[in-house]
Q: What sequence folds into this?
């Protein structure tokens, strides 16, 4: 623990939280001094968000104590947290698109004259705030929905600060920003710390911590490891702490050079999101794409599946030029996507497991086109449920009643049924337990064995190394580095978060 | 109707002028509506000379009153991204209870009006509690309660109409008793309610919160807005206004109240609100627009009748207007997401 003589603004001690049977965090400690920027880092699922939600009053801890300016407090609701001056700026701006900036900033604490909102008084106060966050005065009355994402985030910060923040939590604020916008963000953060605000800064971009953070707390597997002064750290050191040393769980290198690629991307641009993406994937190969949120990694998957149209470059699919007008066209070619947001895009939640398996390839179930054989549907579903070890009383159970891991197995099982030529998997094991993770990885391996080219887009470091034959690291819309299966998690994390500044000349 | 977007583009430099501190007084959609209504009235004036006379316009305003009145509550509800499809059935319940009480006891005007408003508010309370605290979408809840209210209403009617309704409510009616200086009382009351609601939505903090709830309910909760009580309030207000509207409807009818009272009213009300520019997605809307929407809907209905056209044509025109209004709204929202 680094030494401070002042009373900490906030001291969280021995915090634990379980969700159902899953332990989100256990015995976490976090001590933040006023007037400092305290970075909270850890891989996805390390427990950062849960810890922050507890501080913001959105979740209640199972155990642990919280002290505010040396006095014990209990935070049982967001209102409690706000009263203490805990303000959170979430990744997705929590704003009202049809209300003006001024109204957004004052919502819930309007300056009133009688029952009436005192517009003039609010306008007077807003000027200083807009100056501080660097937004032009003329935007005060603009509806927030018409602003850019970066401006919306500035509004979110202004909103948080206007509420007399004593602790400002910034949850991955830089993920959606450009470099110039990040500079603006940092200058705002510095102004706030000068005023004595304690800032908790969550970020995956480790390089930027050296510009903005004073202290760093590292979380891993739901625990806080320790708190360090930033001077004592390097990007590589933080990456090592995050992943817990060097893991040696790697695939044997395999060679695919003798087969023609299933898919080739040549200098693909997508607006300002992707620039000059080149990649190749061959039948039976598992290619991992790793990148932080906002790096463009998700857009690569969407482009391959026809959800985004390239604005430059070309794609070759099995040697022939490919233009995908949309997912249906990609599907016809034998390209399938298993989306990350399963509940929204992947499953028909009220329908049975049986339905969810067979919807993948109804044609295979129909002796006559357009007619689904119930019996065959059932047989195939039962067979897959058995093969995959899906835990369910029967095949008619609605999929929404299953755990995340089992639901994801069902969604992947759907792909086994149709054996695509190219499978794009986004975050295949997000939010599933360890056992299910194993099985999903095994399933992906099986698919590759049967000749499917698998493109895995993931922000899970351990996963990308474990299942990929090759890993491409995406940063700021370009491929930043390529690794074979012998790379370490630290190599990849460092490349993705900006330690490796060398970029391939193109 | 896209004038909003243009005027919103940050063009002028410098600090905002005091006038611009407020939400805009009249939105693009309202100007368009005023334009359409004016054109329609002039056209109808040419085609049927009788149209632009007090004998034709005053009944039109009287007919607008109950729709616009319930429309005010409905605007509140839809701004919070809810909807209430039970207002027609609720109006039936209010009307039958009030009419039967007047027949049975000869209760005077003020208590009769209060009775109707109370019944309406109670029905609104049922909707509001279920929507705000039940976490089920408003259209499902109110579709369910609409059927229950309909059952209650029809049971109260029994197998017969309510006959011999006294003239207690003539003060809200079409006749001379219903006017002062030529202005129908029911329409004047509606204007007052619209004005109060307009001020409330524009200037009162809790009024602005309704827009916040419709824009992003979760963010509203995080901002410390008491979302559930406010949502509940919108349904209770709607119910109370349904109760008042029921008095107008009784006054406009004959001394016999039959089982068709209120049936289908929810559709004209929702049409008025949506045509008036309130976003069905929540977060944006105005009661002034709703009033204009109600006048437009009633103008089309009366116009079709006075021209001697088949009455189904008014359904066609209103339907087209709804699609145009909702379409503009959604196109606008998509344009915004892309930018």
A:
């Amino acid at each position: 623990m680094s030494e401070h003589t002042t009373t900490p603004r906030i001291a969280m001690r021995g915090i634990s939280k379980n969700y159902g049977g899953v332990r989100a965090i256990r015995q976490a400690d976090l001590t933040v001094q006023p007037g400092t920027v305290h970075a909270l880092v850890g891989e996805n699922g390390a427990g950062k968000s849960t810890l922050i939600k507890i501080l913001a009053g959105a979740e209640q801890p199972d155990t642990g104590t919280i002290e505010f300016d040396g006095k014990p407090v209990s935070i049982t609701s967001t209102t409690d947290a706000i009263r203490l001056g805990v303000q959170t700026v979430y990744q997705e701006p929590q704003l009202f698109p049809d209300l003006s900036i001024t109204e957004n900033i004052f919502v819930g604490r309007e300056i009133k004259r009688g029952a009436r909102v005192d517009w003039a008084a609010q306008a007077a106060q807003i000027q200083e705030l807009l100056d501080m966050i660097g937004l032009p005065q003329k935007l005060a009355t603009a509806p927030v929905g018409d602003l850019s994402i970066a401006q919306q985030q500035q509004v979110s910060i202004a909103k948080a600060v206007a509420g007399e923040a004593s602790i400002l939590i910034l949850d991955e604020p830089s993920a959606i920003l450009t470099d110039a916008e990040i500079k603006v963000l940092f200058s705002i953060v510095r102004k706030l710390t000068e005023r004595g605000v304690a800032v908790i800064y969550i970020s995956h971009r480790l390089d930027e911590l050296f510009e903005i953070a004073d202290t760093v707390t590292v979380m891993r597997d739901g625990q806080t490891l320790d708190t360090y002064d930033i001077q004592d750290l390097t990007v590589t050191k933080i990456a090592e702490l995050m992943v817990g040393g060097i893991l040696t769980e790697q695939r044997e290198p395999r060679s695919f050079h003798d087969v023609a690629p299933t898919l080739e991307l040549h200098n693909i641009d997508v607006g300002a999101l992707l620039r000059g993406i080149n990649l190749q994937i061959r039948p039976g190969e598992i290619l991992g794409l790793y990148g932080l949120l906002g790096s463009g990694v998700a857009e690569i998957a969407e482009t391959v599946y026809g959800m985004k149209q390239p604005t430059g470059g070309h794609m070759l699919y099995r040697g022939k030029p490919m233009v995908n007008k949309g997912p249906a066209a990609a599907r016809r070619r034998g390209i399938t996507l298993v989306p990350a947001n399963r509940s929204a895009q992947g499953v028909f939640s009220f329908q049975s497991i049986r339905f969810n398996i067979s919807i993948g390839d109804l044609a295979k179930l129909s002796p006559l086109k357009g007619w689904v054989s119930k019996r065959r549907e059932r047989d195939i579903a039962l067979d897959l449920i058995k093969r995959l070890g899906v835990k369910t009383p029967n095949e008619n159970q609605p999929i929404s009643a299953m755990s995340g891991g089992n639901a994801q197995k069902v969604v992947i099982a759907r792909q086994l049924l149709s054996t695509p030529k190219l499978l794009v998997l986004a975050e295949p094991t997000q939010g599933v337990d360890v056992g299910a993770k194993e099985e999903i990885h095994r399933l992906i391996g099986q698919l590759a064995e049967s000749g499917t080219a698998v493109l895995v887009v993931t922000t899970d470091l351990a996963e990308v190394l474990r299942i990929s034959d090759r890993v491409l690291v995406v940063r700021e819309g370009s491929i930043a580095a390529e690794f074979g299966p012998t790379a370490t998690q630290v190599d990849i994390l460092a490349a993705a978060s900006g330690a490796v500044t060398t970029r391939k000349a193109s | 109707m896209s004038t909003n977007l243009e005027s919103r583009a940050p063009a002028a430099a410098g600090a905002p002028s005091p006038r611009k501190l407020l939400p805009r007084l009249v939105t693009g959609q309202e100007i368009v509506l005023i334009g359409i209504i004016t054109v329609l009235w002039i056209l109808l004036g040419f085609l049927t000379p009788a149209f632009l006379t007090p004998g034709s316009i005053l009944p039109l305003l009287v007919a607008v009153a109950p729709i616009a009145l319930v429309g005010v509550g409905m605007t509140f509800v839809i701004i919070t991204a809810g909807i209430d499809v039970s207002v027609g059935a609720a109006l039936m319940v209010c009307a039958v209870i009030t009419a039967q009480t007047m027949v049975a006891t000869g209760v005077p005007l003020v208590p009769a009006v209060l009775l109707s408003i109370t019944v309406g508010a109670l029905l609104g309370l049922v909707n509001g509690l279920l929507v705000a605290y039940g976490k089920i979408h408003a259209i499902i809840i109110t579709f369910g309660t609409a059927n229950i209210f309909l059952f209650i209403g029809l049971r109260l009617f029994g197998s017969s109409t309510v006959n011999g309704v006294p003239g207690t409510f003539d003060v809200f009616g079409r006749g001379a008793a219903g006017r002062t200086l030529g202005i129908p009382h029911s329409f004047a009351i509606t204007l007052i309610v619209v004005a109060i609601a307009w001020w409330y939505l524009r200037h009162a903090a809790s009024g602005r919160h309704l827009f916040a709830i419709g824009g992003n309910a979760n963010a509203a909760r995080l901002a410390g807005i008491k979302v559930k009580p406010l949502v509940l309030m919108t349904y209770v207000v709607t119910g109370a206004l349904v109760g008042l509207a029921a008095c107008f409807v009784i006054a406009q009818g004959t001394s016999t109240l039959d089982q068709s009272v209120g049936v289908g009213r929810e559709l004209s009300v929702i049409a008025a609100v949506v045509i008036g520019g309130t976003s069905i997605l929540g977060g944006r809307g105005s009661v002034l627009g709703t009033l204009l929407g109600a006048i437009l809907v009633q103008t089309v209905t009366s116009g079709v009748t006075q021209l001697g056209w088949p009455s189904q044509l008014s359904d066609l025109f209103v339907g087209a207007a709804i699609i145009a209004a909702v379409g503009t709204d959604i196109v606008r929202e998509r344009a915004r997401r892309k930018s």
